[in-house]
Design brief:
The chain is an alpha/beta fold. The chain has helices at 15-23, 46-49, 61-66, 88-97, 110-123, 131-135, 140-143, 148-158, 168-173, 175-186, 209-215, 218-227, 230-240, 252-259, 263-273, 278-281, and strands spanning 5-7, 28-29, 76-80, 102-107, 163-167, 204-206, 244-246. The strands form 2 sheets. The chain has a 5-stranded parallel sheet with strand order 2-3-1-4-5, with helices on both faces. A two-stranded antiparallel ribbon has the order 6-7. α8 runs parallel beside α15. The chain starts with a strand and ends with a helix.
Length: 283
Amino acid sequence: MLPTFMIIGAHKAGTTSLAEWLRNHPEAYIPALKEPRFFAFDPVDPVFIEKPRHIFSIRTMSEYEQLFSDSVGHKAVGEASPQYLTSAYACNAIFSALPSSQIVVSLRHPVLRAYSQYWMRVRLGREARTFEDAFSSSEEWVMTSFYYENVKRYVDRFGRSQVLALVFEKLIADPQSELVRLSDYLGIDVALGTAALPSENVGRISRIPALNRLSDNRQLSLLSRKFVPRSVVRVFRSVTSKWSSPTPKLPPDRTAALTARFREDIQRTEDLLQMDLSSHWLR
């Protein structure tokens, strides 16, 4: 059985928590592998072929289908790969293979989404600049916060009725209402799911640099999900969290000033999706 829905992103907008909530729901199925990324892999592009196997671990349709071999009997079957949102190739590949797929996109305040990804890059040793210096660039991880063109690509391809947009800030402030919307959309009973949305990928900075790199190491994550029970992983995270502290908050006045860069894009995305984004991000 192949997926009936896709959680396509955005990065750092609660997609991992949504996937974990659905993974624990008896009527939904999501494979243990985090971010299969299959539809973002172009098998004829040398750039993708040369990527390490742990970056794109699923490369053939047979490998992809195997992820869902235990999904029979579930009402909703899906996966979550934030790489799909910004990939035109992925959009076309998903539509070609699964034209009836339900698309779920989670959006977060564009500045704070970038800020969260910035600190992930710091933990991985990929970023040494200040946030504002890095933010002023046009690197892909920054440009991901411009949502309109990326979301429009999926709306144009699949149709508005097949795209559900969730707002990260609402997921945090009122998770139940957003989970009801998600459950209704996927055709599952929200009451059968856990009462709370799991808190996943919460940004923290460890006093031990090696732990920062371990916490965001995809290769290690793949191995742990394959061989280590989730309960053990959660205990490890709980213990190591004692040696870490939350990432610094971005001052509200700086958030407001930097948001100006996205004002037009927010308003265009709001019109496209016919939903309120301004009250969460512009006021």
